[in-house]
Amino acid sequence: MKRIDGREGGGQLVRLAVALAAIEGVPVRIDNVRGGRDEPGLRAQHVAALQTVGTLTDADSEGVEVGSETVVFRPGPILGGDVEIEVGTAGSIPLVFDTVLPLAMATETPFTVRATGGTDVKWSPPIGYHRFVKFPFLQRFGLAAEIGVERRGFYPRGGGLATLKVSPSDVAPINCQERGELKGVTIHSIATADLQEAEVSKRQVNGARDALESEIDVPISTRSESVQSHSTGTVVLVVAKYEHSLAGFDALGEPGWPAEDVGKAAAQELRRFHHATGAVDRHLADQLLPFLARAGGGITTPTLTDHVRSSRALLETFGYEVDVQTDSERTRISTGST
Q1: Of the candidates 75, 74, 124, 122, which has an alpha carbon nearest to the alpha carbon of residue 287?
Q2: 2-176+280-331 has which CATH code?
Q3: Family, per the entry (predicted)?
Q4: Helix (H) or strand (E) holding 260
Q5: Could you tell me the CA-to-CA distances from 141 to 112, 172, 324 in Å, in that order?
Q6: Which has the closest alpha carbon to 101: 64, 51, 138?
């Protein structure tokens, strides 16, 4: 049984440990879950993620409940099939999907996860980041998975509904160390219907576009949408399409924060990335680690995050060698043959 000290990371460490256990078919024990956080133990979205993997693998588990600081997870073979899960209020659906997605590299049977909760919430990538950045990037290397969004869920009530469909995937080595030329930018802006009269979605687009046009000389396309949701909310996602890569930068609207400034904030993140030299943004670098470990390859990113540091140590516990080299311009992360 693999033994993990949960004080070395947060919820991502727990979710990645369970995903790796399922892929490798080995049991894992995690002590001091989120022990370095102000409120240690599992939160609702972690429980939902672990329950989903547990259902897909017919796992024998202990401690999978809110507040638990010790988890034991003994997976069986990946069964496939259909799973429905309630993350709870505005718990993050994307983080549940993040946990499950690496199983695509080990399953022999397709599976579907239908989840209710938050689609666009703090401390999590918005669902659009998965749809327009992470999934298209990984599909280039052989991932067979897609996401459908039926209803958006914002804080505090959540109520969003999304479906993840996964098929067995032979993922090729992920080599993306140079991003190439910037080919275009797309601004995705969403606001709930109660904000339509104030044109919040369009104003977010305007703020992002104004911040980009003076510095980036490529076509900028826009998608502005009004949606129904249980809670008021807005989100903007700015996606950069490079010759060899994709990158995404988002911002969530908040009361008192002008819509134009919400869009501008996401655009400024893209500007900073564009003036750096990494091939993938820091969030994608974090999320690619299990795929790099399993498939091999190498990527570059502008900065080394705490998530990469803690995940690297976890991957090495499972027998994967992860090489991280950082210089003044970027960080290179590689595994296996590059």
Answers
A1: 124
A2: 3.65.10.20
A3: Belongs to the RNA 3'-terminal cyclase family. Type 1 subfamily.
A4: helix 259-274
A5: 21, 5, 21
A6: 138
234: alpha, beta or left? (left if phi > 0; alpha if psi -120 to 50): beta
Question: Could you give the 3-state DSSP secondary structure of residue 41?
Answer: coil
The two structure tokens encoding residue 85: 């899960």
Tens-level pLDDT at each residue, the chain (338 residues):
999 999 988 899 999 999 999 999 999 999 999 998 889 999 999 999 999 999 999 999 999 999 999 999 999 999 999 999 999 889 999 999 999 999 999 999 999 999 999 999 999 999 999 999 999 999 999 999 999 999 999 999 999 999 999 999 999 999 999 999 999 999 999 999 999 999 999 999 999 999 999 889 999 999 999 999 999 999 999 999 999 999 999 999 999 999 999 999 999 999 999 999 999 999 999 999 999 999 999 999 999 888 888 899 899 999 999 999 998 889 999 997 43
Q: Where are the domains of the chain?
A: 2-176+280-331, 182-274
Q: Which residues are annotated as a binding site for ATP?
A: 98, 283-287
Binding annotation: 98, 283-287
Name the CATH superfamily, with its identifier, for domain 182-274.
RNA 3'-terminal phosphate cyclase, insert domain (3.30.360.20)
| Separation of alpha carbons 32 and 176, rounded Å | 35
> Which amino acid, residue 308?
V
Model confidence, pTM: 0.95
Structure tokens at 22: 């399922």
Compute φ and ψ for 46, nearest 5 degrees.
-70, -45
Q: Name the pairing type of β-strands 331-335 and 220-227.
A: unpaired
Q: For the beta carbon of residue 122, count every other beta carbon within 10 angstroms.
A: 10
